[in-house]
Structure formats: structure tokens, C-alpha cells
Write a structure and sequence with these properties.
Blueprint lengths: L1 E11 L2 E12 L4 E4 L5 E9 L2 E5 L2 E5 L3 E5 L5 E5 L6 E9 L13 H5 L3 E5 L5 H13 L4 H20 L15 H14 L6 H7 L4 H12 L3 H19 L4 H7 L5 H12 L3 H24 L3
Antiparallel strand pairs: 1-2, 2-9, 3-8, 4-7, 4-9, 5-6, 5-8, 7-10
């Protein structure tokens, strides 16, 4: 899920900000060394997986709940763990005016600008803020620009509180279920963690019992946990089959099945054809499309 070419703006203590890009990605690839220009900041939050960041020549271990910010001229690269790839929220923002704004005691912006780099574990419950940002960008409900402006400001406040060592936020998990953020956590789980997710793990993510999580699945997705997980695994399997680079045994392993036989049975039951037949059909369709496209483009001036 990547949003580029965005044009969201907001102000923080009279400083205008622009947000041109945001992404929620599972990293299967290496991010080469790069840096950002004047007034630009990249906010990284890891929701699962492991990896390594090399920042200005120093190596940092990344794991779940890692938060780090790379600002102007900070050279950084990111290497994911192949066995447990990172899943990351990333937001890129840019200040559109120069200079540190001197403000009254307790102001946020000077502290933010004085930290072009920060690395640690989040203590300020930043994940629900990021979830709501992506929810608003995805669904664009009435008032979403105003809502995003408030959320981006809240994001910067959470960052600064991490920088200054504010006491950790402890949530009362019995205070009730925030449905929107819970639904986003569910969608994250099936999109990125289909291999290993269980009902118990999902329930723990959204701070409810397994029974409540199953009820939520039925209420909002008209499905059971088992059906939703199978749907996610089968969707991932079709992508892997179309790529043509992995064996069916490896695809079975990558999608969380205990054996090739179990995977093959589930795939045939779900799609009505075997995985091998699906791969052949996909290749044939791809070749046909490529030939047609080649013929079409050869006729262009």
C-alpha cells in the first residue's frame, strides 16, 4: 500500500508542512543508501519483522515497535531479514519554510527540528495514529483533509515525546474497542502475516479475546477467521505462481501450509484447478497478452 504524489498540507506552530508520500510495505528487498534534502524527514515505524538499518555508517538492529526518523542529509539504508521480513509504516514530510521557529516554553517544533535523526522503540503508542492516517487516506470520508491535518500534528507530538523521554503511555485495554484501528490491524495481519497469523495472535493485536475477534470478523467481513486467512493465503499463492520462480513446495511453505499435499488440496478446493494448472494457464495468458501488446506497439509511429 503506497501513496505517492500526495498533496496533504498542515501547519505546526505556524510552520507549513507538505506530505507527498506515505507507504505501508512488507520489505522483501534491500533499500540502498540515500539521504533527504533540506527540511525533509522520513518517519519509519516497524509493526513486525526484523532487519538492520545503517545510518551514517553505524548499524542498528530493527525489530517490532522500532521507530526511527531520518531527517535532512542523514545517510541511511535498510536491510530486511529474509526469514522474517519487516513490515513498515513510512511517512515522508517536508517543511516548506526555512529556519527553526523560536517559540514559547513547551513548544514542539524546535525540538522536532533539533533531532534530524532519532532511533529507538516507541513509547507513545504511535501505531494507532499511523493506522488512522492510512484509514483516512484510503477511504477519504467527509472531512478527511481536516482529520489528516490533526493526525499529522499528533504524529509529530508523539515523535517529540519519544525524543524527550516522556513516560510511556499505558492503554486501558478494557476501555473498549476502537473499531477503525482494530479493522486496520486485522487487514495488516492478513495482508502481511498470512503465513503465521492465528486467531489468538490476531486477538492479542487488537486487545480482545479470541471469541471477540471472531465476532468482529463475522460482523465486519461476513467471514470467519479461517476463511479470511485462507483467502489471504490463496491470494498470495496466485502471485507467487504467476511469478514462476518458486516451486509449489516452496509456495506451500511460504503461505503457511504444513505440507505440499495440504496446500495442493486447499488450492484445488478454492479455485477448482490444481496449482500447476493455474501456473500454466497464467503463463499462457501472460504470453498472449505480451504478443498482442508487442503487435500493437509495433504499429505505432
Amino acid at each position: 500500500m503506497k501513496y505517492s504524489g500526495l498533496n496533504y498540507t498542515f501547519q505546526m506552530e505556524n510552520m507549513p508542512f507538505h506530505v507527498p508520500m506515505a507507504a505501508l510495505e512488507r520489505f522483501e528487498r534491500f533499500i540502498p543508501s540515500h539521504s533527504h534534502g533540506k527540511g525533509c524527514y522520513e518517519i519509519h515505524y516497524i509493526i513486525s519483522g526484523k532487519g538492520t538499518a545503517v545510518i551514517d555508517g553505524r548499524t542498528y538492529a530493527i525489530d517490532r515497535n522500532t521507530l526511527y526518523v531520518t531527517g535532512p542529509y542523514v545517510l541511511h539504508e535498510q536491510i530486511t531479514c529474509r526469514e522474517d521480513p519487516m513490515v513498515e509504516y513510512c511517512i515522508y514530510l517536508r517543511m516548506t519554510q526555512d529556519g527553526i521557529r523560536a517559540s514559547a516554553s513547551g513548544s514542539i517544533l524546535p525540538i522536532f527540528q533539533e533531532h534530524p535523526f532519532w532511533f529507538g522503540h516507541d513509547s507513545q503508542n504511535i501505531r494507532p495514529v499511523l493506522q488512522m492516517i492510512f484509514y483516512e487516506m484510503e477511504y477519504k470520508n467527509i472531512g478527511h483533509h481536516a482529520q489528516l491535518s490533526a493526525l499529522f500534528q499528533q504524529l509529530i507530538i508523539c515523535l517529540v515525546r519519544n525524543y524527550t523521554g516522556n513516560p510511556p503511555i499505558r492503554l486501558d485495554t478494557g476501555a473498549g474497542l476502537n473499531v477503525q484501528t482494530s479493522l486496520l490491524s486485522i487487514e495488516e495481519a492478513f495482508l502481511y502475516d498470512y503465513k503465521d497469523i492465528t486467531l489468538e495472535k490476531l486477538a492479542a493485536r487488537i486487545n480482545v479475546s479470541p471469541r471477540q475477534a471472531e465476532r468482529l470478523m463475522r460482523q465486519y467481513y461476513n467471514s470467519t477467521f479461517q476463511k479470511k486467512r485462507t483467502e489471504a493465503r490463496m491470494s498470495a499463492a496466485t502471485v507467487m505462481l504467476k511469478s514462476g520462480t518458486l516451486s509449489i513446495a516452496r509456495i506451500a511453505e511460504e503461505t503457511g501450509y504444513s505440507s505440499s499435499e495440504h496446500f495442493a488440496h486447499t488450492f484445488r478446493q478454492y479455485f477448482g484447478v490444481s496449482a500447476g494448472e493455474y501456473r500454466k494457464s497464467s503463463k499462457k495468458n501472460s504470453d498472449t497478452y505480451r504478443d498482442e501488446a508487442s503487435g500493437y506497439y509495433s504499429q505505432l509511429p
